[in-house]
Write a structure and sequence with these properties.
Strand content of chain A: 15-25%
Number of helices of chain A: 13
Helix content of chain A: 40-55%
Number of helices of chain B: 9
Shape of chain A: globular
Number of domains of chain B: 3
Radius of gyration of chain A: 21 Å
Number of strands of chain B: 3
Structural class of chain B: mainly alpha
Helix content of chain B: 40-55%
Strand order of the largest sheet of chain B: 2-1-3
Shape of chain B: elongated
Number of strands of chain A: 10
Distance between the termini of chain B: 68 Å
Bound molecules: zinc ion
Oligomer: heterodimer
């Protein structure tokens, strides 16, 4: 696969519309942090060490006999800044890796469900993504790759502290399990602050999905475990699953309450958002995210029909600055971006349905 | 000098704090210093603040100085540093990160105090290299949940949903019999 393949303006498979509870849970992500014994962590390693680590990992992947997954290796340094940003927006690499100049690379599976960052904060960051709520399945995907890599690489492990990581917040299992949730009901009912505080008590963290400083853009939240040591993998996943199921129930209740108390106001809000997306000529990413959230809620409640979730998921990814510029084929000033963003969304929503029929044959999930 | 806090161990850390222009100095041992360090703010209370932010907030806080660093070349620095990467425990507290895998062994005695504040425990209980992870606990939980849903569906006379949950339970039970492995 060449890099262009991974930059295409489509939602990756993990943003498909399969998966359980997919009206509220958008996607599941599992991350494992691993390091190679005998090398300093990226914080202080030498160029020589960095190079060796990258070569060892690349070598290991070339030996992997992985029937289902075809992997491609990309060196960050060789990528133009805009392309790095697109990979960040697709959640395939972290902003930290994108900013690394030396010997950082990423290995991505053809379906984009697996990406392995090399020389980020740790030597290895194995990341797996799935649509909907699939914690166990996604963990299994990551664990399988981890087991294969363990046979080929000297993974740093200690009996007391488990898998050794640069930051003590990742040591032990090295496991960060995250679930991306769309919570417009709880947001409208002003429940998110309480929820965030409550989750902190269970060792869980709530974040906005478009990164720091964009807290509740589009009512999308990422819930993940904070603790990695002192709990086994299955306990971490089980605890997160339990919490997520409770949030889903609360979100469903909130939506029903809103519908009962103020149906017309809710319908108005949803249809207005839909109209804005279909007709606006200038669109900031904030406005786009808010409108997309309302339309998504409208689809879930059956208020909006004839729009596929697939198109909506695509828009959620495409409204980000990197993608808008990728679409325009050039770097743009923020003001120009807003114009292109509006155009992009209009095109997606207005011909989304005809395109859908063409795709129907190969994609069963629409 | 003896540590001002525990009054047991030798004080090796000087904490200089400037409050309203008044400068005060405290002397602690490494163990107590690690406890008072801002890095060790109770994470279960300050959950939302990531470590790097805690550290960046930190410049307005007391200045930590190592006695041994002041005395320039001291043989004790060598004994405190990680032989593989040269990191000291104090450097770890400053950076919030360790230098290399070997650091965990080098600072094996001091680390649990830090880890106890930010983790659920100080001992790894999960997967080991070459070992299979047991998913049974999660599957049992899923079955439990599906059974509750089934009961609710029956109560509400949502029979289509009930059938769906019954199938789900069957599939999960099959998975449990297979030892937690997915069946195609
Ligand atoms: Zn003391
Ligand atoms: Zn070290």
């Amino acid at each position: 696969m060449n890099l262009e393949y991974f930059l295409k303006a489509e939602a990756p498979s993990w943003m498909g519309v399969d998966g359980e509870e997919n009206d509220i849970v958008i996607s599941t992500r599992i991350r494992l942090a691993r390091n190679l014994d005998g090398f300093r962590f990226p914080l202080i390693f030498t160029d020589e060490e960095a190079k060796t680590v990258d070569q060892m990992v690349t070598q290991a992947f070339s030996q992997l006999n992985n029937g289902n997954h075809h992997f491609s290796h990309f060196t960050i340094q060789e990528m133009p800044v805009l392309q790095r940003q697109v990979l960040v927006e697709k959640h395939l690499i972290s902003p930290m890796l994108a900013n690394r100049e030396k010997f950082a690379s990423v290995i991505i599976s053809k379906d984009e469900a697996i990406s392995v960052m090399v020389n980020e904060e740790d030597h290895l960051r194995i990341q797996c993504l799935s649509p909907g709520l699939q914690l166990i399945e996604t963990y299994e995907m990551a664990n399988k790759l981890d087991c294969q890599l363990e046979k080929l690489l000297p993974i740093a492990f200690n009996n007391q502290f488990g898998y050794l990581t640069s930051c003590p917040t990742n040591v032990g299992t090295g496991l960060r399990a995250s679930v991306m949730m769309h919570l417009p009901g709880l947001s409208m009912m002003k429940q998110m602050k309480v929820l965030t505080q409550m989750l902190a008590r269970f060792g869980m963290v709530v974040r906005g999905i478009y990164g720091e400083g964009s807290e509740n853009l589009g009512n999308m939240y990422q819930i993940s475990n904070q603790v990695t040591l002192g709990k086994a993998e299955d306990e971490i996943i089980d605890d997160l699953q339990t919490v997520v199921m409770q949030i889903i129930e609360q979100e469903r209740n909130a939506r029903q309450t809103l519908l009962k108390q103020s149906q017309v106001a809710l319908e108005d809000r949803i249809h207005r958002a839909f109209g804005t997306l279909k007709h606006a000529r200038i669109m900031t990413s904030e406005e786009a995210a808010t409108c997309l959230s309302n339309v998504r809620l409208g689809i879930d409640l059956g208020i909006i029909k004839n729009v596929s979730k697939h198109v909506l998921n695509e828009c959620t990814i495409l409204i980000q600055p990197g993608f808008v510029q990728q679409y325009a084929g050039t770097t743009l000033e923020p003001g120009e971006r807003d114009v292109f963003r509006a155009k992009l969304i209009r095109e997606k929503l207005n011909d989304g349905n005809s395109k859908l029929k063409e795709k129907g044959e190969e994609k069963h999930d629409v | 000098m003896i540590c001002e806090h525990c009054k047991q161990r030798k004080a090796t850390v000087t904490v200089t704090q400037i409050i309203n222009g008044h400068k005060s100095e405290k002397h602690y041992c490494e163990v107590c210093a690690a406890q008072f360090h801002p890095f060790n703010l109770d994470f279960h209370k300050e959950e939302q603040i990531p470590i790097h932010q805690l550290l960046s907030n930190w410049f307005g806080m007391p200045i930590w100085k190592n006695e041994t660093q002041e005395r320039a070349v001291q043989p004790s620095i060598q004994t405190n540093a990680c032989p593989a990467c040269g990191f000291t425990f104090r450097k770890f507290l400053n950076e919030g990160k360790l230098g290399c895998p070997q650091c965990y062994e080098t600072f094996g005695e001091k680390l649990p105090q830090v880890l106890a504040k930010i983790q659920a425990g100080t001992k790894h209980t999960g997967k080991r290299p070459g070992q299979k992870v047991d998913n049974n606990r999660i599957i049992k939980k899923q079955i439990e949940h599906a059974r509750e849903q089934l009961q609710l569906a029956i109560q509400d006379e949502r029979f289509e949903d009930a059938a769906k949950f019954r199938d789900e339970i069957k599939a999960l039970e099959r998975k449990l019999e297979m030892g937690g492995v997915d069946t195609p």
